[in-house]
């Protein structure tokens, strides 16, 4: 249970969303308006961004060490929703190992430089994230799909032109092979790029795995989105964090203890990179409770979790990468 998460004044999710509109720039405001007016039709009161890839990247420590730098530049270049994908790209390109190459995102060519010219890994991340942000433009315009964007990180932006013209904007292995052959013929190469680059990058993403019975959990999430937060509550009139996760798990036939600490004690603790939609995510120190664990939510992938929040005054979505939650996060758990 959670008494005063974030120490913010209680209020409805919609009021919270409206108040944010005055605090963001015009572009972000436009996106928030779309969220407030459209998304509540499906998830009333839901607060969150969208991305095509869900789940935290399953990456080794050599890649994880660069997360903060990726997050910094992702925010700078307007691609914060793609941090996990960018980390997966690093994992594929270099494994994050500067002993192999300082150009850990293999992006020197995108800056007009010879291969592996970038000698600072942080500069490689800056350039790589910037390059990725430029590739997203045609995706935003609906000309190509997301897989074409990923493949073009390896092939270059010309691949997007090729896919848009020949394959209706839809990436496939066939399209990748055709483009590779075209470039080999044009420049006399024996091979060009990695035709299975999308599959290789996706192998580092946990988006395809979900907790068994997750569909029933999603129905419960829809049912409770926007329900008021009430400390000690256990129903539609109002509910707190541990009662919410207890109800969600009950929907798939699993009984959890009533309190956040009790749930933490009852589950298997897992590393962040193994987290998948449907896992529990725990927090500590969110209020004075006399227990180590003071808050719990349900991880839904792509950095998001669903919880009963006293700060927002209702059951809604939030992001683990937000400063408050990352500071208080205690880890993931799975029954």
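Sequence proposed for the structure above (335 residues):
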């Amino acid at each position: 249970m959670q008494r005063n998460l974030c120490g913010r004044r209680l209020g409805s999710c919609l009021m919270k969303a409206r108040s944010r509109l005055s605090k963001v720039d015009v572009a972000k405001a436009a996106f928030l308006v779309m969220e407030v007016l459209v998304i509540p039709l499906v998830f009333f009161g839901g607060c969150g961004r969208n991305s095509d890839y869900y789940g935290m990247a399953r990456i080794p420590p050599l890649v994880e060490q660069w997360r903060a730098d990726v997050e910094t530049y992702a925010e700078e270049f307007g691609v914060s929703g793609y941090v996990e994908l960018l980390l997966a790209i690093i994992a594929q390109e270099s494994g994050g190992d500067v002993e192999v190459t300082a150009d850990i995102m293999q992006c020197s060519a995108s800056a007009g430089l010879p291969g592996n010219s970038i000698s600072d890994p942080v500069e490689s991340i800056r350039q790589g994230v910037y390059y990725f942000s430029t590739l997203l433009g045609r995706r935003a315009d609906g000309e190509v799909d997301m897989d074409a964007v990923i493949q073009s990180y390896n092939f270059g932006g010309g691949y997007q032109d090729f896919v848009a013209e020949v394959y209706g904007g839809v990436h496939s292995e066939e399209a990748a092979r055709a483009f590779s052959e075209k470039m080999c013929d044009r420049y006399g190469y024996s091979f060009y790029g990695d035709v299975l680059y999308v599959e290789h990058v996706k192998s580092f993403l946990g988006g395809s795995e979900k907790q068994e019975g997750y569909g029933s959990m999603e129905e419960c999430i829809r049912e409770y989105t926007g329900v008021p937060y009430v400390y000690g509550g256990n129903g539609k009139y109002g509910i707190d964090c541990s009662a919410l996760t207890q109800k969600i798990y009950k929907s798939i036939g699993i009984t959890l203890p009533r309190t956040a600490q009790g749930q933490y004690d009852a589950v298997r603790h897992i590393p962040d990179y193994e987290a998948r939609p449907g896992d529990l995510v725990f927090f500590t120190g969110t209020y004075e409770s006399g227990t180590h664990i003071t808050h719990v939510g349900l991880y839904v992938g792509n950095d998001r979790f669903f919880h009963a929040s006293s700060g927002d005054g209702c059951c809604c979505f939030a992001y683990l990468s937000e400063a408050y939650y990352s500071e208080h996060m205690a880890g993931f758990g799975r029954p």
